[in-house]
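User: Modeling request: complex.
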Amino acid sequence: MALRILIIAIVLGVPFKALAKDPCVSGPQLGQRPGPYSFLVATGPQRGQPTCYVCDTAEKPGIIVFARSLSEPLANLLTKCDDAAAAKEKEGLKTWLTVLGEKTVAIDALAKWAKKTGLKSMPVGVFDDPVGPPSYKLAEDADVTVLLFVDRKVVVNLAFRAGELDDAAMKKVSDAIASHGAKK
Amino acid sequence: MTPRLLLLLGLAIPTSSTLALPVPKKPTTTPSSIPEFTPVFAPASVFVALDDRLPFTKLKRAVHIPNLCNYRYHVGTRSAECQKFIDQALGYYYSYVWIEAARSAETALLHDPSCAFAWLVLHKGLEKWNQGDNIAALKKAQELMPKASHREQMLITARLNEKGLLGSATADERKKRAAKSLDELLTIYDDDEEAWFARAALAGGFQGGPVEGVPYYKALLKVNPLHPGANHELVHYFEGSQRPALGWPHAEGYVASSPGIPHALHMQSHLAMRIGKWELTTDRSARAVELQLEYHRVQGVKPNQDHQYSHHLETLTLSLVHDGRFREVGEIRKICEGHGYRFNLPWFRTALGQKDWPTAEALIAQQKKSDKAMGSYMSALMSLERNDLSRANAEVDVLRQIQQTKRADKRLENRLLEVQGRTLCAGGSGAEGIKLLQRVVDRTKNDYWHHAWGGGAYYMETWGIGALDAGDAAAAEEAFLEALAHDAGSAIAAFGMEALCQRVGRTKEAGTFANLANRLWSKADPKDLSEMRAAMARRAEHISLGTTAVTGTTR
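Assistant: Request completed. Predicted assembly structure:
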């Protein structure tokens, strides 16, 4: 069916953008609570420990990035999160990356990748089950899910399929991060 | 009669040659068995001399087991059999099977009594086993040093220094001298695995000792990534240093290095239970026990001679209970009882899971004879499962009175809070009960050692169950999600979430948690799995229909 639509669209000369899928929906939505979960941390003071950063963050602002693969655009996104955490240290902004699936990358390989990426304070780690923390309902087709939360409620949810983390998407994330956690 | 036997019988005066160290007899093609008769009036030493037991270990010679351990360390011997048993001895040594390390080393000496390195391994095995004259074995290694290779000479020298056999010195000086010998050896033979291990052990000791040994173990793994000793030691180290995930690759490396040694299959459980890798650990722990039974049969070892056996059985039992494999717990229990090992609490939890009240009652009665507090705790738990609130309350009272006299016992206090909280939740005082259950969680959730052996999520699961009994959906959800955060393999929490989501109409989520629970208990008896699911659903019926959820809403 999808192939038929694609062929018809090409024949009719429909612009490619118009064929774009619906926005990816993944993870807890606005106003919902990001539940506690632990993952195996690969970098930083908690390296090697199962850690629940959601529990540690409590009411403070936080940014969680879930990823199903490692890529250059993801590295760019993470450096923005890392910079934001450094800039908003007073506000207590905490950010971390959780890679989904123990087969995606081993923690030592992930630590090497993070080092190469140049991350300073943002911890990265692995959640063994590729499904992710069950209460998060992360979409199977979401390669990257970004959750910004404060006061235990999600305030921004952005999800991207593989290849969707382009310049426009990156700008959207950067803007959201820039205004996140600022005292009003 | 040989002079030695005459001496043993007291019929000869000792001379320097008869006082010489016992050199193992050359093996005969058909090993003779221990005589079946017992010389009635003869001293025990005569009996020993008449049989084919080895002089140092007083054990029968070792049986070679192929594929026990992949580690090979070539030593200066022309005897392939000697080499084979040295490798076996080292494999056992690196797995802390001291009795077998000593026995295999002494068996190696049957094939080449002049192998200095075999004497060194015999010394190390005897020392750890705490049997036989280990220093005599080291002195024999010293005597044979001129016939050994340069590397072996340096290894023996290091050991002689460490033991103070090359001149008196303080313990610190001896250690420094030993370290110097090993550093020299490593400088000129940087691929020497025995030297790296000896240097690491000297710096950091055994069994998860201080950090000083770790760089040497890591260096050794650069030479041989599957070195059994380095991998084993690093599993212990990372367990003890509270970074279990860093130990996991070493747990895998250890298993790969020693596929036939029970302890290697067991050791991964020290980490797996802390990082939620339950899928693997239960089967590997079961394999460890299978291998151990085979080992006892082949080498003729009695369970009480095997210091690792009861720990391996207990670990397997805990793992099976966690994974809902209650039928298998029953099978292992029979083996345990046959050897006099008792693991009452996990057996009791199994009986509760199977609603096998007579077995639970019997375990309670037995427990009360030796530990009244534990017996009352177990009885309270069973009464709660059977909805017998009056008995539960009576047991809580008993427990409270005992606790008054043992205020320093934190574990007892936690257990009291647990059953008190559960009883209140079941008896209509939900808010008060949940508070107590939450308090136990707060007291234990950051306790690394409480998390050992899957204990980490237990009180969180209990908090969730109490909250379900009290009809508090929000508290139940928080508790079960916390349980899953602390133990990703918590099937109880998954069942709880499934029941809760089903009850409040979050059907899709209920399906996700049902899948998780099914996966986590995939090897449970289907009857037990259905019973657990039904029990959670019954508890969730206490939640009023129309209740909103927690994570799914903007509460």
